[in-house]
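[Meeting: bench + compute handoff]

Bench side (C.D.) handed over the final construct sequence. Compute side (W.E.) agreed to return the predicted structure before the next meeting so the bench team could plan truncations. Sequence as handed over:
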Amino acid sequence: MDYPARAGRGTPDHRITLPGMLKVMGVSRSFGTHRVLDEISFNVRPGRMTGFLGANGSGKTTTMRIILGVLAPHGGTVTWNDEPITQPVRQTFGYMPEERGLYPKMKVAEQIQWLGQLHGLSSAKAKANTADLLEQLELTERGNDMLEQLSLGNQQRAQIAAALVHEPTAMILDEPFSGLDPIAVDTVLKVLRERASSGVPVLFSSHQLAVVERLCDDLVIISGGQIKASGGREELRAKYGTTRFELVVDSDAGWLRDHPGVRVVDVDGPRAVFEVDPLSEQNGQTDQRVLESALSRGAVRSFSPVVPSLEEIFKEAI
């Protein structure tokens, strides 16, 4: 895929840098005797939204800080397009920390424009980008307000604008949806998806699994400082959802409880959810035998594999 060139320091605004691949390879980190990260590896691919999931204390924020050079790893490497990340490259990244870091008594638009200039944009380009982002994030009318005058949700939108104003080559976002109502979430999702569609790799953490499920292309699950699962969203759904099926018939489906090779998860009148027993000698054909039994009893309204939710994948992985 050909991605458009992005402004860079060699142009009137800053150096041209194309979107690339971010790789975390065998990274470890300890604080004292506590090993926070244990040789973790994953990729953040260009043009992809990668959801980074884990409980508090699992190592997400530490990983993001290592990617950004705030912390040094005790082992392993982080690369950009297979090269060690230098400070000039890191300056082209966009970072949004979980804790809000903007100045509360500075006007919103003035602050975002100033941050754009710090990243190498001309005054005119920083002003134009700020205006565009405030419009996209529905903050135009609050641009001349001080940050502390905004609601927490609007402060979060301003924080996102600050991370995007310099047209980053990669985005690292720690809990970007925290404090946002559903309408604001949709607004932010649209903005982030547009950035990813231009080829920018996006790594974001979130506790809101429903939001991650809607947004992510790829998924990385971390627990206890170790990567428990990673891959494309549909790839992981297939991996964790191959043995569960839903059956809907015309009559009561309670007979399924006595069918060999299955474990019934739920029966509600004509609807049943069951899992194929992996120890069954008929594994691989059991689902078809269930369908044959159902058809012998009458009409079958639907029969399909159950696609696991992100919450189910997360719970199983950790």
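W.E. noted at the follow-up: The longest strand covers residues 34-44. C.D. will use this when planning the next construct.
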